[in-house]
Amino acid sequence: MSEKPWEKDKKTLEWYKAAAEQVRQEAAKYPDIGIPVDPDLAEFMGAFEDPCLTEDDWVNCDDHARHLKELDATLASDSDKKDK
Predict the structure, then answer these.
(1) Per-residue model confidence (pLDDT) at position 57
(2) What is the model's pLDDT at position 84?
(3) CA 12 to CA 68: how far, in whole Å?
(4) Alpha-carbon span 13 to 19, nearest angstrom
(5) Nearest one of 29, 28, 6 to 17, comparing CA atoms
(6) What is the DSSP string of 27-77?
(7) 56 φ, ψ to 5°?
(8) Which helix (H) or strand (E) holds 82?
(9) For 17-67, what is each residue's pLDDT tens digit?
(10) Around 7, how many Cα atoms within 13 Å sit in the side-chain half-sphere?
(11) Cα-flanking dihedrals φ and ψ of residue 10, to 5°?
């Protein structure tokens, strides 16, 4: 993993913190407009982090697929019982 710009030294980290705070204040003051920022600053602020599962991750998960098959079978069985 390559070093992030804000990891180089304390002065740079402080600059990123101050810039992020300025963006937060502007966004709070003007919530209806987008605030353009440098990609490194956006990354520092967490814009590119995605710790959540995507829909594809969830659908491709073996446990989830097994659960869906069981649910489908249960629903089909319940539907058959109601039709009789």
Answers:
(1) 65
(2) 58
(3) 49
(4) 10
(5) 6
(6) HHH-TTS-----HHHHHHTTTT---SPPHHHHHH-HHHHHHHHHHHHHHHH
(7) -65, -40
(8) helix 62-83
(9) 999 999 999 999 999 998 899 999 999 998 876 666 666 666 666 666 676
(10) 7
(11) -65, -40
